Structures are given as C-alpha cells and as structure tokens.
Amino acid sequence: MLRAEGLSKQYGPVTVLSDVTLDVRAGEIHAIIGENGAGKSTLMRLISGYAHPSDGKLFVDGSSMRFSTPHQAQDAGIVLVHQEILLAEGLTVAENLFLGRELTRGGLVDDRTMRRIAADKLAELGCHVSPNALVRDVALADRQLIQIARALLDAHKLVIFDEPTAVLTGDEVERLLEIILRLKAQDIGVLYISHRLDEVQRLADRLTVLRDGKMVGTFPGRTLSQMDMAELMVGRELSALYPPRGDMARGAPMLSVRNATVPGYAEDISFTVHKGEVLGFAGMIGAGRTELFEGIVGLRPAQAGVELNGTPIHIRSQREAIDAGIGYLTEDRKAKGLLLNERLAPNLTLSALQRFHPALAMNKRRETGALDSAIQSYDIRVKNLKVNAGQLSGGNQQKLLLAKILLTDPSVVIIDEPTRGIDIANKAQIYAFIRQLVGAGKACIVISSEMQELIGICDRILVMRQGRINGEVAGEAMTESNIALLATAEADVSRAALGGHS
Amino acid sequence: MSAVIQSAPPRRERDFAIGWADAGPFLALAALLVIGFLINPDFLSSTNLSNVITRSAFIAIIAVGATFVISSGGLDLSVGSMAAFITGVMIMFMNGMVPHLGTWSVPAGMAIALLAGIACGLVNGLIVTVGKIEPFIATLGTMGIFRALITYLSDGGTIPIDRSLREAYRPVYFGTVAGIPIPILISLAVAAIGSFILYKTKYGRKCAAVGANADVARYSGISIIKTRTIAYLIQGACVAIAAICYVPRLGAATPTTGLLWELQVITAVVIGGTALRGGKGHIWGTVAGAVILELIANLMVLSDFVSEYLVAAVQGVIIIIAMLIQRFSNSK
C-alpha cells in the first residue's frame, strides 16, 4: 500500500537518514524502533509530508508520490498522530476536532453537525468527554484520544502513530492498543513508532530497526525478544555503554532531605545521598520527580528540611541553592537551560557571574579561558567559538549545560534527564562524566525515565509514584521489572512480589 | 559509534545577519545625511545639524533607559508623562527654594528631579515585577497617573520657572563646551555609561538573559524581580536627566510637556536594532535611532516634497519598516 524506496534526508552536511526502504500493507501493523536520534521521527515526517526527502521515492498504491505539504499526504490517505499533543486548550473538543476544516452550512459554521460527528467519533474510540468541554479541562489521556480522533476524521488508508503511549498510564495504553488493533481489522495500514518494546512485541506484524539514520533491517513480528530488539537498536552489547562503578565505599551523608512537600506534586519525601554516590530517581512521567527537586532547589514553592554536610540550610531561591553548593540541571535544556541565541561563553558563565567577574566590569579574558577549558574537559564539539548555543547538537548542548552547572562548583549535582534526545556516543560520555563527578567526592542525583540508564549508572534507585517514594532498589535488585512494578503499583503489593528476590 | 562522533552538528553561518542588526541604524543615518544634502545643501550646515541633534537629545537620553527596560523584556509607556511630572515637581521645588538657596536651588532641583525619576521608576518596576502585571498595562496606568498629576499641579496651565533662575539655568540647554551643545554632551555621556553597564557589567549580562529567556535566567539563579526593577530604575533616572535638560528650553512645565514621547522613544529603540521582545540591547543604535527620527522631521521641514504635518506618519512608516527588517533578518 505504501512503499518507501531509498529515502534519505540531509540537513546541510549532516545526514540524518540514509537509504531507508520499507513498505506497509493494508491491515498490517509495521513498527519502527530505534534509539533517540536514530531517525524515526524524520522518517515519519518524510512520509507524512512535513519534510522533503533529499533522495528516494514514495509510492502509494503503486503510484509515485511527492508530498510538499502535509495536506497532500492527507489527501493521499496518510495521517500522522503527533507525539506531542497539539490542541488549542481554550477551544472546545469539537472545535479542536474540526480546527481548520470547519463544516459550514450556507457560509456559517455548522456547530450542531460538528458536535454530533465529534461525539460519534469519540464514542467510537471509547472516549466519553463531552464535545462541548474545553480541552483545558480534559485529562491527558483523553486529549491523546481527541488527537487520534482528529487524525481519523480524514479518509485514511495509513495511520502513523509517533510514540502515542509516552504520556499514558497502563489502562490507557491498553485502550489505545485496542484502537490500533481495531484499525488493523478495518484493513488500514499502521506505522507504529515506540520506545516501549513490550508494545511493539505485542502489536507488530513486522518491525524495522533504525540506528544512526540507517536501516538495520526489517524483521517479522514476534520473532525477536525484547533483548534482541534492544541490541539491534544499540548495535552492541548494552553493558559497554555504562562506565564501571567505582569500588569506592560510599562516604558520609552529603545531602539529606526530610519531609519535603511540593504542593500538588510531591508529599512527605525523605532521602539521603552520600558522598561518592549516584542516587537514581525513577518513576513514570508525572510522578512528581522534577517538581520535587525544583522545590528543593527553590524554583517552586515547597517545604523541606534540607541538610548539607550535616548543617541545616534553608533554600528560598535557586541563587541560594547554587551558593550553598547544590547544582540542578533542568530536563528542558532548550527552554530553561540555555540561551539558544547567545554565544557559548555567556551561557557558560551565567550561573557563576559573581564568581567569574568579582570586579565591576566583566573579565572577558577569564571568560574565554573558562570556555576553552570547558570545551576541553567536556569534549564539546564546535567548529568555532562564535556559534550560538542553539546551533550545537543536543549532545553538545547537554555537555555545555553540565559545564555551566559545574562552573558553580557544586558539591551535590542533580541531573534531570541527563541524556534526553542525545545520541548514544554523547550518552556514554555523559555517563562517564557522572562517574568522574562522584569519583571526585561529589554526590550526584539522577532523575530519569529511562530505566536502563538508571540501572546502568546508579548505585541505588528510589522509585516515585504519584508524588511519593514507593520503594528503593539497590544492587542485584535493580532490574527493569522491579522498577516498573514500583513505578506503577502500590508499594504493599510490590513488597510481596519483591520478597522472592531478596 | 565513530560514525556518530564524526557527524558535525548542523550549523548555519549567519554572521552577516548579526552584522546588519549592528550596523543597520548607522547605515540608515548615513543614507539620510546624503539624501538630506542632495535635497537641500543647508541641511548639512553645522548650525542645522547641531540644532537637530540637540533637539533629539531628550528622546535619545530617555531611549537609553528604554533600551534597558526593553532588553530585560519590559516596556515603559509612561516616560512622556513621567518627564512632564518630574519637570513640574522640579520647577516647583526650585521656585520654592529660591528665598533660601538663591541660584543654588538649581543643583538642588536637579537632585530632586533625579530622586523623583528613580522613585517613579521604582513604582513602575514594582508594579510590573512584584505585582506581576503586564508591563504594557502597568505603565499605561502610570502614564495616566503622571499625566493627571502634572495637569493637577499646574492647574491645567503652566508652571513657569522663577525669573531669578532663568539666567543661571539657561546654559544647560543653550550652552556649549568646545562648540558642542551641552545636551549633546550629556546624551553622549548617558549613552557611554549605559553601554558600559549593558555590555561590560554583570548586570548587563543578567538584563539580556532575563529578556532573552526568563526561565533560563531563573534556573541560572538570576533574580528576575531584581533585574527588571533595576531596569525601570535606570529608565526613571534617564527620564529625570532628560527633564533636567528640557526645563531651560521652554522654561516651564505644562500638561502637554513630553506628549507622545513614549512613542518616539520606543521607535528609537526599535530602529536601533533592539528586539521589542527582549534580549540583547543596542545602546548606540538607539541613539542613532533618536537622531534619525529628528533628522527626518527636519528634512521634511526643509524640503517641499511632503507637508511637515505628515512627520508622524513618516515616523510610523519607519518603525514598521524597522520591524519588518528585524523579522526578515531573524527568519533567515
């Protein structure tokens, strides 16, 4: 039904996708898997008309097609369900469904018909929100369904799902998978992109693995174990990604937090991180991990008893946290971490202005020196020093952000999603830096949604669920299934299940 | 893995775009001078030019302060009525002090003007930062308040400066040092100090960071409240300095003093290359922008092509063109 031949995409000198060939048949679920940055999203954008291939051809029902806009792809029956929720919050559900293609009667907007169709479509998907409700008041999972309903409103032969389950919880995922199986039963082709290998294993009739923009291969569904898929994606033994743990004994308590409460996000949380230790925080998206630490470092209102090296401290702002020696690396480096339109040096020294420029006027030479040494020690790859931070690749931005925080010389480093959206070589480097930090006598807290990553670098992992700490795993007990259980189920139940391991 | 390392990040050379934003206002200024000379050779005479630049000094001085406010992501619509209010307060204070201080009431009045300016800036700043009210609305409110206060103080008429002070104060506007009118020297000094603060100090760095992305600044431990409030204080001080230069020109404060200055000030800042949404400020560009506005008005008076009643229309066209240029140089 759809066939892509030799699709390639270059941005300037950089090839993000090269020579990908795949086809989707009617009534088939074809899964695409790959690491972040492997080119999955680029491939989807090419197929659905959001970007033009530099090379290669697309065939729909045997005839060659060129899409220059998403509209043309829609006309050919290809619709994309975006990963992010793109809805206008201030409009009603029905208005969102028909946004940009309102039905009219005699030149006037025909609200009644649109509401009726919207209600029908949503009911078909098992979503029972009122078409008159504002999207703002609708739960996240229902918004995802509204988005799917919007895509399915067009006549469609092929539906592309870009990580549709990333924000959903267990039951909601089940509902979505049912919807996808129903599409398949209606003889519609489905391209399914996901990080969650268990879903891929259940759904996919065939699956294609991408790595570094190249095709590893297409395999029949249900022939690969999840471990097989993971190794195909990464292209080597998984353990090599992570640096060996130091054999250092864990030192004295460095940062201890008692009864931290961030209203609306986290409640009554206590933990201690020791010198020379990497402490992980696992949990589903929305478990309150980021908000907890933003509260602790003074970025949002919170109550917490914080002790640093045994001395109680009171943190009311990010400035006080930095001055006390607690560095926090945000998960959102583009919006909250770096000034994308600024050069590298001002970005690097922004948190440490006072330390760097004690006198009235700024010391340019000192700043350049700091940038040179940061580029050296964190292996930030730049063509010249005059580029803006926004022109760096994700991995280099992350290294710059790490250098920026470490310039304030913190003793405790909190890193939120250390490797989100960066390629695997940079990931390995970041992990090595984290090990170096604790080796140098600092303490490090890593918040991550990637369980593999936490297991690979942490000495101990706390799992949060719905704003509370739901359990702790360390040593041999650090397995994906233990963490996943703690992240999703009540602790009492999970303790019973864990009993077998310990 | 090695393949990943070799792939360089995508990078576009856009140095020329940055260069344009820096040089643009000065190129426009030069072009205007050439056009002016072609239309009317008298235009380039030193008397005419020094008159024009002297007249532009008030806007230039206030606009230096506005560059800080706009760079930090704010906006101040109240500068015109604030100037009128400060002028009124200053004249009333000086007149009242004449029996005690004689001509010494002039420097005392200047000090009061500065204090009043800083206080007005503080009010604006606190409403915007602590009160968390949109700068546009907050300063629209204080604009009305200052304007009403000067109307009330002057009883709808004028507040003239005391006769005994006229001679002593006159040189601040009409005097020259080495042939250069004093207002020009003052505005150069204000711009020099402003560019030192904005480009060479920690505060300037913080100001641009807050304007470029308030979240990044907050996560970097920069106090947004402090940074924005200080920008409004600087704005208040600049308005006071402009008011000090303005008093001897007409020798009185009236309810129409400084009317619509806020528009000229914002126009000067935007023509100068500072983005209205905040970020990096261009102090010298702002000064060039203020001069450009006054030159255009002068050119229209000297030439017969366009009626001078259309000056505001031409200035309006210029601000729109400046914004379009910014838009297109950014989207490249």
UniProtKB/TrEMBL annotation, chain A:
Gene3D superfamilies: P-loop containing nucleotide triphosphate hydrolases
Annotated InterPro entries: AAA+_ATPase, ABC_carbohydrate_import_ATPase, ABC_transporter-like_ATP-bd, ABC_transporter-like_CS, P-loop_NTPase
Keyword Nucleotide-binding tagged: yes
SUPFAM superfamilies associated with the record: P-loop containing nucleoside triphosphate hydrolases (SSF52540)
Domain ABC transporter stretches: 2-237, 249-491
Pfam short name (any one): ABC_tran
Keywords (A to Z) from UniProt: ATP-binding, Nucleotide-binding, Repeat, Sugar transport, Transport
Example of a GO MF term: ATP binding
Protein family according to the UniProt entry: Belongs to the ABC transporter superfamily.
Protein name, UniProt field: Ribose transport system ATP-binding protein
UniProtKB/TrEMBL annotation, chain B:
GO molecular function: transmembrane transporter activity
Entry keyword GTP-binding: no
Protein's membrane topology: Multi-pass membrane protein
Coarse class of the protein's main subcellular location: membrane
Highest taxon of source: Bacteria
Pfam families the record matches: BPD_transp_2
Name this protein carries in UniProt: Ribose transport system permease protein
Organism (species): Kaistia soli DSM 19436
Subcellular location: Cell membrane
Residue intervals passing through the bilayer: 20-40, 52-70, 77-98, 104-128, 135-153, 173-199, 230-252, 283-303, 309-325
